[in-house]
Design goal:
Layout (H helix, E strand, L loop, with lengths): L5 E4 L5 H10 L4 E4 L3 H20 L5 H8 L2 E4 L10 E4 L5 H12 L7 E4 L6 H5 L8 E6 L8 E6 L5 H13 L3 E6 L6 H19 L3 H10 L7 H8 L1 H15 L7 H8 L24
Parallel strand pairs: 1-2, 1-4, 2-3, 4-5, 5-6, 7-8
Antiparallel strand pairs: 6-7
The structure holds nicotinamide-adenine-dinucleotide.
The site of nicotinamide-adenine-dinucleotide (NAD) has 26 residues, from helix 4.
Length: 290
Amino acid sequence: MFVMKAGVVGAGTMGAEIAQAISFAELPVVLVDVSEEALARGRARIEAIYQRRVEKGRMTPSQAGDRVSLIQFGQDPALLADCDLVIEAVPEKLELKQALIERLDGVVSPLCVLGSNTSALSITAMAQASRHPERVVGLHFFFPASVMRLVEVVRGEATSAETVETAVSFVADIRKIPVRVKECPGFVVNRVLMAAMAEVLRYQEQSGASFAEVDGAVLAAGLVPMGPFGLADQLGLEIVHEVQATLAAAYGDRFAGGEAVAERVATGALGVKSGRGFYDYSGGGAGDGR
Ligand SMILES: NC(=O)c1ccc[n+]([C@@H]2O[C@H](COP(=O)([O-])OP(=O)(O)OC[C@H]3O[C@@H](n4cnc5c(N)ncnc54)[C@H](O)[C@@H]3O)[C@@H](O)[C@H]2O)c1
């Protein structure tokens, strides 16, 4: 099925950027969030991405304006009624995602594909909330979704071959690279990333090195654009925490991340989005990593 109009639910770190990526490919997209404030922040994030392209001379202001106008922002899920594919990007909680899928079932057509941007949760479990489990598929974008081209397309036990094909061609249509992966906790990328992250957290705890020292050493190796603690702050520590818990429950303690993440989440230090995580962003930049 060709996707003529897409929807994204959740206008946070990922949802706003996914909507931007869809609009960039000149497809109309509806971005829905329960929070008016989140919608305003999402819009600002999207406009800033286009503004940077304009400043770099990659787009004219009028082209950027045309792309932004392809995005409809709103709080009412009914706005998604005529979408051919809807991607959920709400927080990483199975019950929340299941409740949303049940709600979407009553809004969209039975043929509409429901994609989940979950980092590590079971697509099969999520699909059980739908009267049409065959249309539920994992569509896992990576941060920052406006830049990163890889998208994991995850087939749950009930996902139909047609749904997978629609998801794969949609990802290609928005100029990203679809990779079909088998369903397992963490899929492929997060299973690898979180194993490395757990090792780094253990090393930092045992060595007493500062977060900045560890990030500096990883950066100096020249393999990645960002150190692990800086990256975790960008992703959102509550997301990292949820994914660690899912993977530790599935694969054991080698995925458990020590106390550093849990302690920060408990105090509301979620990373860049809250102004403090491993680093302090209150002054607009990174602190000393302590
Ligand atoms: N943060 C990352 O780097 C990253 C990367 C890949 C995948 N993911 C996954 O993407 C999903 C979203 O993560 P995020 O970091 O963007 O979260 P976020 O907390 O930044 O954004 C979630 C948004 O969902 C909204 N929301 C909550 N309940 C809703 C509902 N019922 N209907 C509509 N909107 C609702 C919230 O208001 C919020 O704006 C998670 O499943 C996460 O695991 C995150």
